[in-house]
Predict the structure of HTH-type transcriptional repressor CytR.
Amino acid sequence: MPRRVTIDDVARLAEVHKATVSRALNAQTRDQVNVETLKRVKRAARQLGYVPNAMARGLRTSRSMTIGVIIPDLMNPIFPPIIRGIEHVLQAQGYTVLVANTDSHDDVEISAFESLLQRRVDGFILATGRLDDHTVVDEAKAADVPVVLVNRGAGMGGFPLVSGDNAHGIDLALAHLIELGHRRVVHAAGPTNFSTTRSRAEAFEAAATKAGVEHDTSYASGLTIEAGFDVADEILAGGGGCPTALVAGNDLVALGLIRRLRAEGLRCPEDVSVVGFNDMPFAEDFWPPLTTVHMPLREIGAEAARLLLRGIDAGEQEAATVTLPVSLVVRGSTGPART
Amino acid sequence: MPRRVTIDDVARLAEVHKATVSRALNAQTRDQVNVETLKRVKRAARQLGYVPNAMARGLRTSRSMTIGVIIPDLMNPIFPPIIRGIEHVLQAQGYTVLVANTDSHDDVEISAFESLLQRRVDGFILATGRLDDHTVVDEAKAADVPVVLVNRGAGMGGFPLVSGDNAHGIDLALAHLIELGHRRVVHAAGPTNFSTTRSRAEAFEAAATKAGVEHDTSYASGLTIEAGFDVADEILAGGGGCPTALVAGNDLVALGLIRRLRAEGLRCPEDVSVVGFNDMPFAEDFWPPLTTVHMPLREIGAEAARLLLRGIDAGEQEAATVTLPVSLVVRGSTGPART
DNA sequence: TTGTATGCGTTATCAG
DNA sequence: CTGATAACGCATACAA
């Protein structure tokens, strides 16, 4: 790698001082320089293939124009759309997005956070809201850096949160099932230490009680296909016979549930109806096509980014909680209750 | 945001010179400092919550310890595993991975590259191998920065490439179909300007000719479900009646094909068999479960990262081409030819 | 083993 | 409108 071209090289070729080059090359200060010299500088820069050094600039301005995004699992299809939403609004403002994937691993999470902090990101968007493990949120609090929580983490650390309306989603799902004649419904929830799990489980309990349907809740060990497959054990072995409908903690759990149902010789939706959560990409291509609660994932990401930007510009965070509306997408995994 | 703690603050508290702090905090030079002072420094650093400034360090060392990864579409499920493979080996070496998603948009691609270059990434991994549009590769060439191509882009710019064995994958797929009795097979390939499309299409032509089966190739406008859905037009309307089997350019195209088949009242695999390509996550959860060519995606990413690291350390790139073995995963989307 | 001095490439402040 | 100069936070060659 040959030595990179610096602002000094450009200055020499353009026969001006490097301060002038700096002014010429920054949109902010461009109008402070003579049109003629501006041209000369631009030409010189192009000729030399000058690429400004963001590290030097950041060091000087103490802004990296960089945002750190920490997510627990890139392989979960709900995250790409969220990231896309984030990037969409951030890139438009000249920010670069640094995505760190932690595989839901605590120590990775913490070291990713640390690494991003070292890079002096101007803010964080965190999608890792476990209730029991406040480490990252606490660290963020201690580091006194702008943070927006996404999707999970209601009320943690007093940071703003953007998410879909979990309670209403559950209401919609349950209403749909009841309308189809289901009277025995089990909620195959996510792990108890996710904040979303709690919101949804509480909403389920409340709605099911109010509607007067027989109900129960089982907790999967993760928000994955495997965990969904496994939690079916508990549900199938549960007292009171097999429920006629299941509300899953998310679409992956729903997929695991369906896999297991099939393995047990039960058909979906003829024998058991299943409702997912999130409406992740490809939900309609599974078998059966998933009836699920649609989350505006892209918009959630975009809104989080906007909130963060506002916080950065204002110099302080509003403790807003933005809840975006959800809707029910009825596809093939739900049907009339078997009588 | 209060002023950040610097190495000077630590030095003052520990009552040593900042140079000593620097030495104490870097693994490389740690043994140059007295055990006692080391302790003092560490304590002071912890006490103050010192976080080293990567920009300042990078500016001084002219290494950002950062790798840029440019991918065309985060929503395509083949990329998360690849990214994971990349991160796995890079993080172990202390590198941070900057992922830029371009949505297959030329100008976004170029500006993402530029942005990464400004950040002085130590190298690039590019997954954007279109044949007609050399811009990024050319820019990379001009910038004289270490690059490894991934998945696509055979032979572009003389950069190393890591990919799966496309030709062999096609051979496996075709052999499987022929064994099932298919004699009229169409290749629903990707866009003509992807290098993978060419390798696969050529292999298909060769293998089908050699096997003596009736065959044809149609080109989808993208590697997406929609493009797969649309290219079915051409195939269904094609002369010589409907083929009994299709080899898709990738799994998404396969999904689109199947959607369309269903829309036309054709069943898969009873009426038409479909083979996908990549074995993307969830391939087994679709309906029917996808028979597809398995690509070792994670390993492809990991190998690309290793190759890049070697190039960076050596100061020059080997022009290696690494081709990883593929295999056929037979699931539900292929069956005996209708006679 | 530790301190001193310098420079990495920018931008901001201050003169002119 | 432009030039000179300092400073951002750190690592390192050199001196002690």
Summary: The CA atoms of residues 72 and 128 of chain B lie 6 Å apart. Chain B touches chain A through 48 residues (CB under 8 Å). Chain B has three domains: 7-52, 66-164+297-325, 166-295. Residues 16-20, 23, 32-34, 37, 56, 58-62 of chain B lie near DNA strand C (CB under 10 Å from a C1').
